[in-house]
Predict the structure.
Amino acid sequence: MSKEFIRIGGAREHNLKNLTLTIPRDKLVVITGLSGSGKSSLAFDTIYAEGQRKYVESLSAYARQFLDQMRKPDVDFIEGLSPAIAIEQRSSGSGPRSIIATTTEIYDYLRLLYAHVGQPHCPETGVPIVTQTTSDIVDKILALPPRSRVMVLAPVVRGQKGEFRDVVERLSREGFVRARVDGTLVELADGVRVRLDPKKDHTIEAVVDRLVIDEKIRVRLSDSVETALKWGEGVLLTLHQRPEDPSKTQGSKSKTDPATPHPQPSTSDTATWIETLHSNRNLSPATGKSYEPPTPKHFSFNAPAGACPVCHGLGQKMVFDEALVVPDPDKSLEQGAVLSWRRGGKRMVVYYKSILRAVAAHCNVSQETPYKDLPDDFKRILMRGSGEAEIEFNFWRAGKMSKITRPFEGVIPNLARLYHESESEFTRNRLKAFMSPQFCDACNGRRLKPEILAVTLGAGDPDPKSQIANPGPVHHGRLLAVGREGRRLFRHAAARRISGENRP
Ligand SMILES: [Zn+2]
């Protein structure tokens, strides 16, 4: 198969007259001709139709049964054709977020693929997000050395301010005998009051069970893990002590009797208890934060579930641009270097002139100096404001000079404020001329939430952080980079999509 050309032989679709031609690959090729000469018959009804048919043939028999039989176009042969996509001349349906991938619906497949086989990572640290079922958690706990002492805790309050009398009362009422409050174990006997400073952050964990690791505790441990996950809303903590210290292993006989008193770990020996966080949700083991399991809608920058909250999925924002505010840096302030302040009503222009005069005087710079030769410090104050530093302004008001001393807000914040406060469409449009698009600094133009951008494809990357630097369905090269495994998964996802499963 030729890698350089697509060869078409004997194309007779519609009004094509047994056309034979060669089209260079990996090039932008334009087909021109009179109306009715067969441009669309060649591009859509022959080349695209054959590419699509070959793609469908590559799917499993199971997937194919849900698709209409595709007619082979009337052509003798086409060589060198890859699976094809068509972007048709559609008048509607493209918004500011449309890209080729969304218009052609390829993005829908990518969303499905990432949602099903992507590996989520903690957006803050890059460690893989873990999900586990109740029995995974039970297996992990049972894998501790035999005779380890374990406590199963359900976090009910996590670093929140308040007295939480109702929480403690409810735990006691529900039969919990102990709780760990701010790291200290307390008994929840009747009438015992737990006093907490309402102005401070507190953490309260219910002690669901205390046991000793042994083959026979699986059923009881499963119940306890389930209870803890219910109270902890998907999260539980275990504290365990290794069995090395013989003084700590007494009481292991009581493992099947929850009522038997255990040696109470005092505050002094909590240091020897090892704490582990478990969750049946998507959880970052590094930060303890849990995330929603990704679904196709999370990979959509058109949906609030997935869109970057700062730019709402646009990937860029319009900001005032110094290069447009001062388009000709050869001009001095006197000559009107700050163009944005030379427009508008006459009174405003006079007002802005007096502000420029005051700021220049404050910084000891001449209004005659070309803008490009002004010191950077002055330019920064002029554009961004003087911060706390106060500047003396003199304004003519009602025929007399009045003096005001206050910080200077800066040209760009001034324009931004005008833009947001103005109700006049005319003013806003005038100000837009000084704005240029800039990548959203939250998502770097990648349009999705950080935790969604941290989902990667292709297992076995030694450094998940390197994927995070360059992840996500927005980056079109990724799919090629995942190789054979990725292509198999993609095909699998496409088949599921076509068969109607998990429609996003
Ligand atoms: Zn953004």
Remarks:
- Residues 308, 310-311, 315, 440, 442-443 surround zinc ion (CB under 6 Å).
